[in-house]
Amino acid sequence: MTEEALPSVCSAKGCGQPATWALLWNNPKIHTPERRKTWLACDEHKESLSDFLARRSFLREVEPFS
Question: Taking the model in full, what pTM does it have?
């Protein structure tokens, strides 16, 4: 049985565009410093999702996603 890869789409609510950015974050109140969670973003939502995480001091890194 072969498992097909699921498409990687933007994490913004209602967006179905392909992801082009990985937003790596953690919540320091509940995650260890080295832990990274990932939100994916398209070009259109990269800034708004990054701003959301940065305002909460959660954003750690933004990397291109392929």
Answer: 0.85
